[in-house]
């Protein structure tokens, strides 16, 4: 990557302070500065301030009062927090694991040589992702209504109706479905671009060596797809921990607010602590814990993804 | 090339039933992806009770304008649409400009700490937005920006993804010789950027613009926190408010609004789908 500036032709004895090189550096710093300025104010500073705030009692109006770890005590002794915590994990698992597997399956199907209309399928699979979460939630709340289409289908299959908007599991199934609907196609397209990056001649030589489809899948496809699998599952995990809009909108309909226990998530808890109850300290403590959980799960995710498909034997062409 | 690939695959052909199952799954997936859009329209064009009709009603009705009239009684729908259009456009213009500028600097300039700074930019992508939401809210309160569009626009004016995206594109699409030639002709740095680089990279700028517009248009959490007054609601908040209104959920009304709010993005997506998909999946390539 060469520098656009050629060593200056100012070969005079007197060197000006602003050499061409200096000038070009200053220009570059100026060009990138807006990001760093905005990020310091609205990204970096708030993060540090959140940690600081978590040790104070504050309602955003009156002076802050130092309380040590009391906010953490308050939050961790609040049963609602733990419900929000377990809800977030349960819905995260329910929404993420099947989603990634389904996306992988769809990608393999799409990648297959015999698929026609590939471009059309790609567009159709991607459509859910451009919809706003609010719209997704509203549409699915009709499908998941007590007399909605999903229950009609269940009845048709001889099963009982499920209370998707009030049952403990019903709410979680409904919300996970919304998440899955919006993201499965997106992830499938990412996996597809991963599959397309695997050179065809690897399969060719494997086939000459007598490897069948299954062996090819485990020896070539999955190991080479690993970076994409890590990316997708990491992104889905982080997204799942931040789940907010779906439960907030879906459960807000009853007018009881969105803190109903069937679907309250950690971010919903944080939101209502701060913006409903005015407890900025405990909300900040919640944010910090959410952050720690996010890091923990990201690491866990990396470890698990690294562990699977580690056998790269048979890579030799 | 694709015929060649198909020919190569022949040895493991799945047979008729295999093929049938294969297409069945693919088409089922496509139907599931598309159906909710159609359903939105079905409910939005039929009368109030249609949504829970047994068996489900699957045909488009003629009640759309009646339904939509009730939307206008309950919410400033077009005001909200206009607000969203304004905020999204402002953010998009700014994001495209500043991200292109920064991406250009990272792609075509040499300066101390360049790589470290770029890695830092990428690293900020992982930080969850909610972590800083409380102090950001406090900053907005101090600036008296609560309930103003500035709170939505200013923090979003430049972002890490855009810088990453533009850098990747500029590095390969803008020949360094072209820039050097500009230097020899005595052009200033910004002039070269504007007259030589920008014309070459408009496709990437357009993609970034579309992606960003969609993100801002769809955002819910931050507008919910910051906006207080009904007149300032963005379209997503206005939609959510329709859903919260008591006196029985009028789904025909709600879906006619949802459909109207989704349609513009759907059209943009279908027109530019190739670009949008390339942009949205590009994050994975890096990892």
TrEMBL record, chain A:
Residue intervals passing through the bilayer: 31-55, 89-111, 123-144, 224-244, 279-300
Protein name: Carbohydrate ABC transporter membrane protein 1, CUT1 family
Record has Transmembrane as a keyword: yes
Keywords recorded for this protein, A-Z: Cell membrane, Membrane, Transmembrane, Transmembrane helix, Transport
Domain of life from the UniProt record: Bacteria
Organism (species): Paenibacillus typhae
Homology family: Belongs to the binding-protein-dependent transport system permease family.
A Pfam family that the UniProt record links to this protein: BPD_transp_1
Domain ABC transmembrane type-1: 85-301
Matches recorded under InterPro entries: ABC_transporter_permease, MetI-like, MetI-like_sf
UniProt subcellular location: Cell membrane
GO CC annotation terms, alphabetical: plasma membrane
Membrane topology: Multi-pass membrane protein
GO biological process entries: transmembrane transport
Main location: membrane
Automatic annotation (TrEMBL), chain B:
Membrane topology, from the record: Multi-pass membrane protein
One record GO biological process: transmembrane transport
Intracellular or extracellular location(s): Cell membrane
Pfam families membership: BPD_transp_1
Cross-referenced CDD domains: TM_PBP2
Alphabetical list of SUPFAM superfamilies matching this protein: MetI-like
Domain of life according to the entry: Bacteria
GO cellular component: plasma membrane
Coiled coil: none
Family per record: Belongs to the binding-protein-dependent transport system permease family.
Name assigned to this protein: Carbohydrate ABC transporter membrane protein 2, CUT1 family
């Amino acid at each position: 990557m060469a520098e656009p500036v050629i060593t200056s032709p100012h070969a005079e004895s007197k060197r000006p302070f602003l050499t061409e090189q200096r000038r070009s550096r200053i220009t570059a710093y100026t060009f990138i500065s807006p990001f760093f300025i905005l990020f310091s104010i609205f990204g970096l500073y708030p993060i540090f301030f959140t940690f600081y705030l978590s040790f104070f009692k504050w309602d955003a109006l009156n002076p802050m009062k130092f309380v040590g770890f009391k906010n953490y005590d308050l939050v961790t002794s609040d049963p609602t927090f733990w419900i929000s915590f377990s809800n977030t994990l349960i819905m995260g698992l329910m929404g993420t694991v099947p989603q990634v597997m389904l996306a992988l399956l769809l990608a393999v199907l799409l990648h297959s040589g015999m698929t026609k209309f590939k471009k059309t399928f790609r567009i159709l699979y991607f459509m859910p992702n451009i919809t706003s979460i609010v719209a997704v939630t509203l549409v699915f709340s009709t499908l998941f209504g007590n007399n909605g289409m999903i229950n009609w289908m269940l009845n048709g299959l001889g099963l009982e109706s499920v209370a998707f908007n009030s049952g403990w599991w019903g709410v979680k199934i409904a919300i996970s479905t919304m998440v899955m609907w919006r993201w499965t196609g997106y992830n499938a397209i990412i996996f597809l671009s991963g599959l397309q990056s695997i050179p065809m001649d690897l399969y060719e030589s494997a086939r000459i060596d007598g490897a069948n489809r299954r062996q090819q899948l485990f020896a070539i496809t999955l190991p080479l797809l690993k970076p994409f699998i890590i990316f997708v599952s990491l992104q889905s995990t982080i997204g799942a921990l931040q789940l907010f809009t779906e439960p907030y909108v879906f459960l807000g309909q009853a007018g009881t607010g969105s803190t109903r226990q069937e679907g309250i998530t950690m971010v919903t808890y944080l939101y209502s602590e701060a913006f409903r109850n005015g407890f900025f300290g405990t909300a900040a403590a919640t944010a910090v814990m959410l952050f720690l959980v996010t890091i923990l799960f990201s690491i866990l995710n990396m470890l698990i993804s690294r562990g699977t498909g580690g056998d790269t034997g048979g890579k030799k062409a | 090339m694709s015929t060649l690939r198909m020919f190569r695959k022949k040895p493991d052909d799945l047979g008729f039933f295999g093929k049938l199952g294969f297409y069945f799954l693919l088409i089922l997936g496509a139907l599931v992806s598309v159906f909710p859009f159609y359903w939105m329209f079905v409910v939005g064009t039929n009368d109030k009770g249609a949504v829970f009709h047994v068996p489900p009603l699957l045909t488009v009705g003629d009640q759309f304008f009646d339904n939509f009239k009730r939307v206008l009684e309950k919410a400033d729908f077009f005001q909200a649409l206009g607000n969203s259009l304004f905020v999204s456009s402002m953010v998009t213009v700014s994001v495209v400009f500043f991200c292109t500028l920064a991406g250009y600097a990272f792609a075509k300039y040499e300066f101390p700490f360049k790589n470290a700074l770029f890695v830092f930019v990428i690293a900020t992508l992982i930080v969850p937005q909610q972590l800083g939401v409380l102090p950001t809210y406090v900053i907005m309160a101090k600036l008296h920006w609560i309930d103003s569009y500035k709170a939505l626009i200013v923090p979003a004016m430049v972002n890490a993804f855009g810088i990453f995206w533009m850098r990747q594109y500029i590095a390969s699409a803008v020949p360094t010789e072209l820039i050097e030639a500009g230097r020899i002709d005595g052009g200033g740095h910004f002039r070269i950027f504007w007259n030589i680089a920008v014309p070459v990279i408009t496709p990437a700028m357009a993609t970034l613009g579309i992606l960003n517009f969609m993100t801002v248009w769809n955002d819910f959490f931050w507008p919910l926190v910051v906006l207080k007054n009904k007149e300032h609601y963005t379209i997503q908040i206005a939609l959510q408010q329709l859903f919260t209104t008591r006196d029985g959920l009028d789904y025909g009304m709600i879906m006619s609004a949802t459909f109207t709010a989704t349609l513009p993005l759907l059209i943009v997506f279908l027109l530019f789908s190739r670009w949008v998909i390339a942009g949205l999946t590009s994050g994975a390539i890096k990892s």
